[in-house]
């Protein structure tokens, strides 16, 4: 397993304007992967989050914090990104970081405390983006509100979008993208990082109830 960090492209050359920043590759540093036991208990329907423990520190280039406030309200615009499939540039999938604006919306099956939903209109997190962050850069630090769980196939969304651009009448309503809420799973994150995670809020890791059962691989 290779960990790529602190960059927005893999196997690329750095540009003078700073827009292209090659990610540094770290090999053979994964010590373990931890997940909530509830992920298995729910038959993979919930608790879609994992913490990867490394043998050495990896710089991210950001002051990164985990949201431990109320979930953002519908209409809030955050950012989501990942190195997954890009229907517009399939040859560059898995090589370049793609970032989209993500508008928070009500979940179609009712709001759950452990998930955050985003609108799916012309963009969405795609296959391979799982684990990517739902982010907000403000107040001088990066806040992680959630991680990519699942959503509509990007191939399907791209097909519908092309039909609309061609002037065809298409009546399709996508179900929305689902992100696992870091606020709900902050106790799990704190437990598996030995209170090393920074929380964006008044509390610290040591203030949280960390009795969740964890599976380690």
UniProtKB/TrEMBL annotation:
Molecular function GO terms recorded: serine-type endopeptidase activity
Gene3D superfamilies: Trypsin-like serine proteases (2.40.10.10)
InterPro entries named in the record: Peptidase_S1_PA, Peptidase_S1_PA_chymotrypsin, Trypsin_dom
Lineage, uppermost ranks: Eukaryota, Metazoa, Ecdysozoa, Nematoda, Chromadorea
Pfam families in the cross-refs: Trypsin
Transmembrane regions: none
Coiled-coil regions listed in the entry: none
Database matches in SUPFAM superfamilies: Trypsin-like serine proteases
Protein name: Peptidase S1 domain-containing protein
Protein source organism: Steinernema glaseri
Domain Peptidase S1: 1-194
GO biological process, one term: proteolysis
């Amino acid at each position: 397993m290779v960990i790529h960090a602190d960059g927005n492209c893999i196997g690329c050359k750095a540009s003078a304007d700073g827009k292209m920043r090659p990610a540094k590759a770290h090999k053979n540093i994964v010590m373990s992967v931890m997940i909530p036991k509830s992920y298995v208990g729910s038959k993979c329907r919930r608790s879609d989050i994992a913490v990867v423990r490394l043998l050495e520190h990896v710089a991210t280039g950001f002051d990164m914090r985990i949201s431990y406030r109320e979930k953002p309200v519908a209409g809030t615009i955050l950012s989501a990104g990942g190195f997954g499939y890009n229907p517009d540039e399939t040859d560059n999938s898995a090589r370049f970081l793609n970032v989209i604006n993500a508008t928070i919306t009500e979940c179609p099956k009712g709001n759950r405390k452990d998930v955050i939903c985003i609108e799916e209109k012309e963009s969405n997190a795609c296959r391979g983006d799982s684990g990517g962050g739902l982010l907000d850069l403000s107040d001088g630090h990066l806040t992680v509100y959630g991680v990519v769980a699942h959503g509509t196939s990007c191939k399907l969304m791209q097909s519908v979008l092309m039909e609309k651009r061609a002037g065809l009448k298409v009546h399709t309503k996508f179900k929305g993208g689902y992100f696992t809420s870091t606020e709900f799973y902050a106790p799990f994150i704190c437990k598996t990082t030995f209170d090393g995670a920074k929380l964006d809020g008044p509390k610290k890791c040591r203030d949280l109830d960390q009795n969740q059962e964890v599976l380690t691989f």
